[in-house]
Amino acid sequence: GASNADLLKRRQAAVARGVASAAPVFADRAENAELWDVEGRRYIDFAGGIAVLNTGHRHPKVVAAAKAQEDRFTHTSFQVVPYESYVALSEKLNALAPGDFAKKTLLVTTGAEAVENAVKIARAATGRPGVIAFTAGYHGRTLLTLGLTGKVSPYKKDVGPFPADIFRVPFPSVREQITVEDSIRALEMLFKTDAQPDRVAAIILEPVLGEGGYHPVPAELWQALRAICDRHGILLISDEIQAGFGRTGTWFAVEHSGVAPDLMTVAKSLAGGYPLAGVVGRAEVMDALEPGGLGGTYGGNPVACAAALAAIEAIETEGLLARSTALGETLRARFADMGARVAPYRMWDIRGLGAMLAVEFVTDFESATPDAALTKAVVAGALERGLILLSCGMDGNAIRIMVPLTASDAIIDEGMAIFEAALAAAIA
Ligand code: PMP
Q: For the structural domain made of 73-317, what CATH number should be given?
């Protein structure tokens, strides 16, 4: 077979430069939390295909369900001839989503598409155009979702203008010294300066900033936003695309706050490795558009729906919510110990919710200057030693853990030992 170097050369010649890959190696096969490249090298996978694999690569139940569906039919388009799995998955998502009210679901294919549709639905339901998002938020790479995404480089660079009527509020940040009260005050100010509240359809935020660095939304902010939305008739949207399906120890991360959003966007670990996404929310809001106003040729693909039903069942029957909480505690303790021993004063923060955890690196404790170079060196050193890691954060100085919740303790230990070796080498 072709070597990694050969494939890299072909990739560089044939694939658009804007699509980046974190690893310079090519996948051959993968199983649960392990992956092998085309040269037969084994890696432990702490990236999980960007938080898609809470149930691991090729979970046996997910693969069996997808294969069984492939033997029946692979596509009809739900808009031409519907099928039961789309309905069953919608019922399941409606039941799992927080909030003591009737819910309905729309299935689409990608996370960005889910966010686009959540905004369309919110606009149609309220008859209002405005959308408020937060700094450092990530909601996708299509033009509307880029408008919502709160980071210029590399996402928004050179591709504007973005849709009108999108407003932004600062996300609480220890580093930027922005408190929850500051965020709320900025929102109230925004209502006075730019965004007439009764022309705002929705406020959208991630319950834990994903690409933005694994900063959880404080419960007080969720509660304040819920009250503000109720006061002004604004819909509250939790973008659960990266944080959902057990990553934080609950089905959806917003549940930690006790707040029920009006709409949620879901994708990634929803379907255990198949492209599937959705919008779940208040039935009367979800019903705002006319028949034909929502959808897409592939939305709710039957193979992906079968996989999703199996992935959700695996989360339930294998106790993966509790596993996520326990794993989060293990990882947190392990990082605290590692930081103190191997990288004193350089591991500035360990944060997250459940197993949605990141560590942040700085040049020194006093200035707390973000150290993207050290972070890069750890990621590269880990890959050389057989561990796939992904960074995150506005300053590129955090490493996030998205390991499958199905990974064994032995694999977690092995991965953390590699992390430590890579960190020690990068510091030296
Ligand atoms: N929202 C969040 C919170 C995400 O993490 C992502 C993907 N990283 C998206 C939206 C966009 O999803 P997709 O890449 O499937 O379009």
A: 3.40.640.10
139 in ligand 1 pocket by Cβ < 6 Å?
Answer: yes
Q: How many CB atoms lie within 10 A of CB 10?
A: 12
CATH class of residue range 4-58+319-427: alpha beta
Does 111 contact ligand 1 (Cβ within 6 A)? yes
User: Are β-strands 235-239 and 200-205 bridged in parallel, bridged antiparallel, or unpaired?
Assistant: parallel
What is the residue with the minimal CA distance to atom 14 of ligand 1?
111
For ligand 1, the distance from its centroid to the CA atom of residue 279, given in whole angstroms, is 13
Ligand 1 lined by 206 (C-beta under 6 Å):
yes
Burial of 254 (0-12, 13-18, 19+ CB in 10 A): buried
Within the chain, which residue ranges are assigned CATH 3.90.1150.10? Answer: 4-58+319-427
Can you tell me which atom of ligand 1 is nearest the CA of 115?
Answer: 10
Answer whether 257 contacts ligand 1 (Cβ < 6 A).
no
115 lines ligand 1 (CB under 6 A): yes
Q: 143 C-alpha vs ligand 1 centroid, how far in Å? A: 13
pLDDT of residue 34: 98
pLDDT digits (tens, 9 = 90+) for 37-71: 999 999 999 999 999 999 999 999 999 999 999 99
Q: Where in the chain is the domain with CATH 3.40.640.10?
A: 73-317
Q: What is the pLDDT of residue 266?
A: 99
Taking only the tens place, the pLDDT of each residue in 352-363 is 999 999 999 999
| pLDDT of the residue at 207 | 98
Residues of the chain with pLDDT under 50: none
The reply to whether ligand 1 has any atom less than 6 angstroms from the CB of 242 is yes
